[in-house]
Write a sequence for this structure.
């Protein structure tokens, strides 16, 4: 005789990965991986707000993609390094949607140069957008999350934060700071129903990697133990998992999606 397992809470078990009517903000959500994240949440029934800094064309294309999925969506222009613009962005979402469930800190920039040629302005700008932006956006959403005793904050970091990379002292430092920020904030939020994690994508197939020359492409592939670039779905799958109820006991972690690179 075989014992048949029946979940104690069958309805809850079947819906742990649903995002129907969840409210999400994806910063830098109109291009590349950010756009893939926004559309993935929309396909799962979430209400999706995306921010962008300046690229109006990409923003319009992403907005059209969200509407095609019949998703409730908001398009918000904001510089995440500006306290006033972040507060305005989050305030607009809260005014329209009342609360937020999920924040994905994806907005980021690079200003790659060897340190001897890197001026202070290039250092500061990368820190302001990547690290300060993560701080400002996270701070702006946590009161709403605390009030409901539920929230997911997921920040995007990089293999450069874990291994370092020549020509990226500013970028590596900013992304390493995001890891430390994630681990510290997770301890502050753990008893309040809010998880704080980071995802570390490796080399992913995006329009940016499509423009690589053959030599650079082959060099990168040879560095990756799995011998191939990742797909956007590999990263969005990790983010959806960490944002779901299935990951409710996971916090303060960095999930590398890099084919074994790190």
């Amino acid at each position: 005789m075989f014992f048949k397992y029946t979940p104690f809470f069958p309805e809850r078990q079947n819906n742990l990965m649903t995002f129907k009517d969840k409210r999400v903000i994806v910063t830098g959500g109109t291009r590349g991986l950010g756009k893939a994240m926004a559309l993935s949440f929309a396909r799962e029934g979430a209400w999706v707000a995306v921010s962008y800094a300046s690229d109006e064309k990409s923003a319009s294309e992403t907005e059209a993609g969200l509407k095609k999925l019949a998703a409730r969506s908001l398009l918000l222009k904001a510089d995440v390094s500006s306290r006033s613009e972040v507060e305005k962005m989050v305030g607009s979402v809260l005014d329209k949607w009342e609360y937020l469930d999920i924040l994905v800190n994806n907005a980021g920039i690079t200003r790659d140069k060897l340190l001897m040629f890197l001026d202070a302005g290039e250092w500061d700008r990368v820190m302001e957008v990547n690290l300060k932006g993560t701080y400002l956006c996270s701070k702006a959403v946590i009161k709403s999350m605390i009030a409901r005793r539920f929230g997911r904050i997921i920040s995007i970091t990089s293999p450069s934060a874990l291994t370092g990379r020549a020509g990226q002292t500013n970028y590596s430092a900013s992304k390493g700071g995001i890891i430390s920020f994630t681990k510290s904030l997770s301890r502050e939020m753990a008893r309040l129903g809010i998880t704080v994690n980071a995802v570390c994508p490796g080399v992913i197939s995006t329009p940016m990697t499509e423009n690589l020359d053959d030599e650079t492409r082959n060099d990168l592939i040879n560095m990756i133990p799995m011998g191939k670039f990742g797909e956007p779905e590999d990263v969005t799958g990790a983010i959806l998992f960490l944002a779901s109820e299935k990951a409710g006991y996971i916090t303060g972690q960095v999930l590398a999606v890099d084919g074994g690179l790190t």
